[in-house]
Amino acid sequence: MKRFLFLFIVSLSFLSSFAQEQKEERKNLLSVSFGYTFIPQGSALEEEEADGIFIPSIGIDYFRRVHPRWEIGIMVDLELGEYIISHKELNRKNALAFIAIGSFGLTEHINLFAGGGIEIEKHKNLGVIRLGTEYAFKLKKYWVISPGFFYDFKEGFDTWSLSISFGKEF
Questions:
Q1: What is the pLDDT of residue 156?
Q2: Residue ranges of the domains in the chain?
Q3: Hey, is 19 helix, strand or coil?
Q4: What are phi and psi of 141, to 5 degrees?
């Protein structure tokens, strides 16, 4: 009888663990971002002085959670415009950046980013180091909206960007 009672209790606890609703963990995030990049040392092609210029940008980001607070990923950004960096005699048109990123979740909503990569452009390719932060608003059905700020250190000049990302966790 004791053996039967023991097996019955173990069976119930085993079955109850299956019956409990499991919260599905989402480890991947794919998002599309829209924003503006400010180039302080840049100017439009027809201007002589470098007063700074805003260039629209779009991007696609993919992140994979490797720890509850850490993610690794890639950010691919395209600047949709043409400008010059006069002190470097550098012409930039539709530059495409590929940046490997490490992300740390400071809080449930605030992420800090750091990474490096390359910016590809027909005149000259540049190395890039990126630092940034995002605030993630988690919506229903694993959708995420994240306004972000990023600062890029490039060879010869720096830029900063404000963006908003729309993503889906899966």
A1: 83
A2: 27-169
A3: helix
A4: 55, 35
pTM, full prediction: 0.82
Residue 47 pLDDT: 81
Q: Are strands 143-154 and 82-85 parallel, antiparallel or unpaired?
A: unpaired
- CA dihedral (106, 111, 115, 121) in degrees, to 10, reads -170
Q: Is it the case that residue 65 has pLDDT exceeding 70?
A: yes
pLDDT digits (tens, 9 = 90+) for 88-115: 889 999 999 999 999 999 999 999 999 9
Beta-bridge mates of residue 16: none
Nearest Cα to Cα of residue 147 among 162, 132, 168, 160: 162
Reported as type and span, the H/E element at residue 8 is helix 2-19
Assigned CATH topology for domain 27-169: Porin (2.40.160)
The greatest distance separating any two alpha carbons of the chain, rounded to the nearest whole angstrom, comes to 95
**What are the residues whose beta carbons fall under 8 Å from the beta carbon of 6, sequence distance 6 or more?**
none
Which pLDDT value is given to residue 9? Answer: 55
Pairing between strand 90-93 and 110-120?
Answer: unpaired
